[in-house]
Specification:
The protein has helices spanning about 10-20, 50-60, 70-75, 80-85, 100, 105-110, 125-135, 160-170, 240-260, 290-295, 305-310, 350-355, 390-405, and strands spanning about 1-5, 25-30, 40-45, 65-70, 90, 120-125, 140-145, 155, 180-185, 190-200, 205, 210-215, 220-230, 265-275, 280-285, 330-335, 360-365, 365-370, 375, 380-385. The chain is an alpha+beta fold and about 425 residues long. It folds into four domains: about 1-95, Rossmann fold, CATH 3.40.50; about 120-185, Dna Ligase, domain 1; about 190-310, ATP-grasp fold, B domain (D-amino Acid Aminotransferase, Chain A, domain 1, 2-Layer Sandwich), CATH 3.30.470; about 330-420, Glycinamide Ribonucleotide Synthetase, Chain A, domain 4. The strands form four sheets. Strands 1, 2, 3, 4, 5, 10, 11, 14 and 15 form a nine-stranded mixed β-sheet that branches. Helix 7 (about 125-135) runs antiparallel to helix 8 (about 160-170). It is globular. The structure holds glycine. Glycine binds near residues 212 and 285.
Length: about 425
């Protein structure tokens, strides 16, 4: 089986690593990939958003299954483009991918099918949005409706900042047409959990839950990032709440999409807040989480290729996933200055020493190869995952491996999974 993985981050390297363990998989390609994927796959120099070029290339090579890492190709309709050439994509159709591509679509679906979520109102003009905002209590949550590269959500403590965020979207057009509509949403308080599942459009097979760390600094200080670490499982999600969420949120959403006549096969990701009034959906995504995937897949014993192909073909049958009971902790190594300005091109040293730590795996994110040497090429550079018999051991493993790696300006949080260790 020939597999194409689209994207170039830590999530995509982890997917390539997991697919490489499948006896069914003969060849793996990554478009465009990074220095890590180059070691176990062939990198193809086609951008993740060039759907026509990707489809033409995949048809030429005879790719059996394509997995889109990031959301953009899915929301742009890679499933539909590939389907016209008879190519299988593990992911939803363009219409179904609105679940992530349009927050108002997701909110309306949840309201129509009784999937628990925070209250929200949508606005196209600033005056009515402002009037509504004044009827609410802080903190205020303002979201651009469309994809905004992870920058479209503002949670602010006062009216002035909330109005500025809405002005940015609706008047300044900071996010282009993705900000033509804004959502003003109820603030949800409580621990967050990411629950991701495979689906064939009929049934769901949940993956192990994970929690990610979005702020750049220890103690959740500083600006939001693409993710500074993660861990799996999530002890705060008890068995009864897990069962409730699988039924009402994951199975509920898949049934809702099917009832709307939409084709959804691939991954469904519920970002949840465990509020005092029960679990509520903060957002749905239509792809694997990053860096949750880096903490989930090292715990998965089953063959991902078998599951992904069955889902893409629309029949998961009675497949199930077997899990390693050991927890996994993932630490992100970033470039100094990230998520603001940072420099790239610094040689990365001692990767092999990190990989030699028992229980550790190093997944590349922003890396490239220059003159045979691995160098930094992004804000988030590497993810180091560690397995252990308990969280304390998994955390010690990840941090021991992380501490061996060095490049100019390397930065990482020191408190990943501390709360559960
Ligand atoms: N870790 C959050 C996300 O992948 O959206």
């Amino acid at each position: 089986m020939k597999v194409l993985i689209i994207g170039s981050g830590g999530r995509e390297h982890t997917l390539a690593w997991k697919f490489a363990q499948s006896p069914r998989v003969t060849e793996i390609y990554c478009a465009p990939g990074n220095a890590g994927t180059a070691r176990l796959a062939r990198n193809v120099p086609i951008k993740a958003d060039d759907l026509m070029a990707l489809a033409a290339w995949a048809e030429d090579v005879g790719i059996d299954l394509t997995i889109a890492g990031p959301e953009a190709p899915l929301v742009e309709g890679i499933w539909d483009v590939f389907a016209t050439r008879g190519l299988k994509v593990f992911g939803p159709s363009k219409d179904a991918a609105q679940l992530e591509g349009s927050k108002s679509f997701a909110k309306c679906l949840m309201e129509k099918y009784d999937i628990p979520t925070g209250k929200a109102e949508f606005f196209r003009d600033l005056d009515s949005a402002r009037d509504y905002l004044r009827s609410l209590e802080p903190p205020y949550v303002i979201k651009a409706d469309g994809l905004a590269a992870g920058k479209g959500v503002s949670v602010v403590p006062d009216l002035g900042l909330a109005e500025a965020a809405m002005h940015d979207c609706l008047v300044q057009k900071r996010f282009g047409s993705a900000g033509d509509v804004v959502l003003v949403e109820e603030f949800l308080e409580g621990p967050e959990v990411s629950l991701i599942a495979f689906t064939d459009g009929k049934r769901v097979i949940p993956l192990a839950p994970a929690q990610d760390y979005k702020r750049v600094g220890d103690g959740d200080e500083g600006p939001n990032t693409g993710g500074m670490g993660s861990y799996s499982p999530v002890p705060v999600l008890d068995a009864a709440t897990y069962d409730e969420v699988v039924k009402t949120v994951l199975e509920g959403a898949v049934a809702a999409l099917a009832a709307e006549g939409l084709i959804y096969r691939g991954v469904i990701y519920a970002g949840l807040v465990l509020t005092p009034r029960g679990p509520k959906v903060l957002e749905f995504n239509v792809r694997f989480g990053d860096p949750e995937t880096q903490a989930i897949l090292p715990r998965m014993k089953s063959d991902i290729a078998e599951l992904a192909l069955a889902a893409a073909e629309g029949d998961l049958g009675d497949l199930a996933i077997e899990w390693d009971s050991r927890p996994c902790v993932t630490v992100t190594l970033a470039s100094a200055g990230y998520p603001g300005k940072y420099q790239t091109g610094f040689p990365i040293r001692e990767l092999e020493a990190a990989e030699a730590v028992p229980g550790a795996a190093v997944f590349h994110a922003g890396t490239a190869t220059r003159d045979g040497e691995v160098v930094t090429a992004g804000g988030r550079v590497l993810n180091v995952s560690g397995l252990g018999k308990d969280f304390a051991e998994a955390r010690a493993c990840a941090y021991e491996a992380a501490s061996k790696i060095n490049f100019d300006g390397v930065y990482y949080r020191t408190d990943i999974a501390l709360r559960v260790s």
